[in-house]
Amino acid sequence: MSSPTLASWRDTGFVILIGLVIWQLVSMAVGAHTLPPPLATAKHIFVLVMRPSFDRDLANTAAAYAVALAIGMTGGLALGVLFGGWRFIGQSFEPLMHLLVATPKVTLYPVILLLFGLGDAAKIAFGVLHGLPPVAIITAAAIGNLKPVYRKSARTLRLKPSEFAWRLLIPAVIPEVLGAFRICFAQALLGVLVGEMFASTNGIGHLLMASIGVDDNPTILAIVVLVFLFAGCGSVALLAVTARRKS
Amino acid sequence: MGNDAALLVESVGHVFPAIQGRGSVRALTEVTMRIDSGEFFAVIGPSGCGKSTLLDIIAGLIVPSEGRVIFEGKLVGGTVPEGLGVVFQEDASFPWLSVWDNVAFGLRGRKLGAAEIRRRVGDAVDFMGLSEFAGHRPSQLSGGMRQRVCLARTLVLRPRLILLDEPFAALDQQTRLLMGDEVLRLWRQTSATVLLITHSLDEAAMLADRIGVMSSRPGHFVETVMTGWHRTRDSRVISDPRFGDITSRLWSKLRQESLRAMGRAATSSAAD
User: Fold this and answer.
1) Of A123, A244, B34, B124, whose CB has the highest number of CB atoms within 10 Å?
2) Do residue B80 and residue A155 have CB atoms under 8 angstroms apart?
3) Nearest one of A183, A155, A230, A231 to A77, comparing CA atoms
4) B22: helix, strand or coil
5) pLDDT lower than 70: segments of chain B
6) How many CB pairs below 8 Å do chains A and B form together?
7) Considering only CB atoms, which chain A residues are within 8 Å of B91?
8) Which regions of chain B carry the CATH code 3.40.50.300?
């Protein structure tokens, strides 16, 4: 392992340690019932994941999230290529995507419920609604902002349209698309969890809502930490892929 | 200099159509030129006179509104003809590929064996002094080296006509002189015909056999200057007394056109 990587891990570890110390201090200040301390939360996470019902909730969320993520990424990518590749289509439909990003998705909750009912489809729709627009917008921008000299080079190198797409356009926009996927990764998770909180009878989001209902603070915090860890690990993994491409 | 015309530009004119409330712009009018096979021809002119538009037309990237371009006896129109290579002013190296893969880029997808590609890329990389950096990414190279990568990428395709669109504009003076030497070496060894677009009088005077001076927009040739350099020249010609004569002659013509382009012809004449 190179020394910059070691230093990076050391810095990350230091930040986590500081975070844990602050958490402990705040917990002591407001009381363990209101904010359970880190060690108690770690123990509760262990108890929580050992529950058979947790496996079912996790599986439900994971399945919905996987579908939402897949639709968000592929759909967003396809729309982005369409918007970026064909200016007229982009000018006509891209503003709708921007509008969707700017709209608080919770306000669309009644519409989603009417369209998809109470169940998996609704939470997947919520995930897609959160994850797809950023991918479409960023991909369209990346294609639209492709250096004009690359297009000229492609012509002077006499590339066929398919060669231009596969050998030049796609590699050139991949860094931006990977960045969009990172946003999609986080946003789709948010969408699915919100969908489960308001429009589902199972899943981690539903468990979180149920815990809020009975004032079960240790479970609430345990779920928050688990989601935080999952989102953090996913984001770091995607960042690593981006960094590997750059090196 | 041979007698065969590698390139003929006949009465070429070009008008960019009106867009978004701005009127149409006539960039070129009645441009006529002939470049012989193996010749090094430079084009200079004031900013915005249509030099790059002329290059795009010759390269087949733009179809001219008027006139025609003939490369090796065939009409150029809309597509880049085989045997023609272009190096642009902007850095066109692909940052996601190594130097080696950048140079090989244009060869892949053609019907060439892997050994032939390896040989050609190896030769070009050696020729441009990039062997040590073959595995590097462009981001790890200086601006001059990245332009050498782009030159090598063009070179492997063995073009018979090389179009250079201000390829050294972003480089410092010393690097420009050295890159000029590289281009002259490339020109001698490949026997290709070279058309250089530049705004630098020194660059044109040092590199070219003939220099066409373009007018302010709409651009057309107002004078052609012969340099009379030997084919084995290099950047040391800048210390030759004739070099000053050539640049003076170019500047006397270009100054009028540049002032006209800046809308100051009348003021300047009065002052003179």
Assistant:
1) A123
2) yes
3) A183
4) strand
5) 1-3, 264-272
6) 48
7) 149
8) 5-83+159-271
